[in-house]
């Protein structure tokens, strides 16, 4: 029997898992696929802003790899939870020292820079629960950054807890700056209707957070106003 060659895929998020599902049925007679992925579960990051605020369904954002590949024949794909530290010409080297040889390599590590650390579903869920609880207990919620992530988080917090003071600080005069300016107007009017305070300003000094209480230190925060605020 001929030995199967190995295709290594680094990164098991949307791109990596989709690629494996499409590739494995076509190559499984000659190649095995090894997915190397630092998270124990696939992170459905579209839901992350919401599960940082709303309680009770954070488990759904961490999807097991058990049934990830519907089209891939059984045994065609192996999943290793690990962190690729070095890419060599014929193998990748994991943080724990293991070498995984490859014939072909797919790098699907995304464009973000999340910390390179192994994660488990339980730890990730716990992180979200701490955030949810902190927002639940706070009277004043300040969100820094008016891109999609920050906006959704601020809107969710204000819709779920209408009596809290929710402030969104954004560094330019256009919310969602990667999108059409008209979207800024739509989002601004919705924020105003909900009662979210908008501040267009640059934070000059890093916000410090008390390790004990998790509270932001007011004394070291300096917001430099860009000249517009909603109220
Ligand atoms: C809140 C939010 C909402 C979004 N909503 C949408 C949406 O509605 N529609 C849309 O099209 N896009 C959306 N996006 C963008 C979308 O999430 C990204 O485009 C997408 O995640 C990119 O997928 P990817 O597989 O290329 O990389 P990523 O999702 O970044 O995944 C990279 C994977 O590689 C792993 N990895 C990285 N380095 C290593 C290493 N050295 N060793 C092992 N593993 C490693 C990581 O653990 C991760 O699993 C959203 C993004 C966010 C943050």
TrEMBL record:
Looking up SUPFAM superfamilies in the UniProt record yields:
FAD/NAD(P)-binding domain
Q: Which Pfam families match?
A: Pyr_redox_2
What are the GO cellular component annotations?
Answer: cytoplasm
- GO MF term set: electron-transferring-flavoprotein dehydrogenase activity; flavin adenine dinucleotide binding
Task: Describe the location of the FAD/NAD(P)-binding domain by residue ranges.
Answer: 6-212
Source organism superkingdom: Eukaryota
The parts of the chain that form a coiled coil are none
- Protein name listed in UniProt: FAD/NAD(P)-binding domain-containing protein
